[in-house]
Description:
Layout: H1 5-9, H2 12-20, H3 24-36, E1 44-48, H4 54-62, E2 67-72, H5 75-84, E3 92-96, E4 109-113, H6 121-133, E5 140-146, H7 154-165, H8 170-183, H9 189-198, E6 202-210, E7 213-219
Helix pairs in contact: 3-4, 7-8
Amino acid sequence: MTTTATSTASHPYLDGPPKQVPGFASLHRMVGLLLAEQAPPDARILVLGAGGGMEIGALAREQPAWRFDGVDPSRDMLALAEQTLRPHQGRVVLHEGRINAAPPGPFDGATSLLVFHFIPHAQKLATLRAVRQRLKAGAPFVVVHISIPSAEPERSLWLSRHLAFAGTPAASAETSLQAMQSQLAILSPEEDEALLQEAGFQRVALFYAGLSFRGWVGYA
């Protein structure tokens, strides 16, 4: 399939995260800085949730010798990633599936951006442990996703702020809020941090907070 750079850039999925995630462009830069603190110049990086290719593309532009293995369960999103990452295709391998589809490594670092609120609660710990097992000792793991208080009314308030920032029309805001409540597996910041520690990550630290989103870095 032939797709021009213009049509790829205008894909609806690629337009979404910059509108929904506060500081989206700076977030990629922060992730790159955290990885580069420990990763060597020729690092091999695991990306869990590589669909669309934006995350790998941003890191690849900053680090021209890094290599990437990206994993995503959506064939359509991987096809979009292939288009997005054509300038870096010699350094990127994409794998269809979940974390068990990833190579064993060992990797010099790993990321998972805007993914974990989609992973069912019962699978979160096993997924984190599988990432941890694929990392070299001391390698960084950077994870960012929706993380808000569990108790009401704070939970609904934070989701309402999320929808307002994304520009959700008032007429559909309540329906969208109910959909998020029922379809996303969202934990509180305290629960998220505890899971990272239980999975074996050390020195877990919050590095990013933007309305409903939180981001942590931990080390294998």
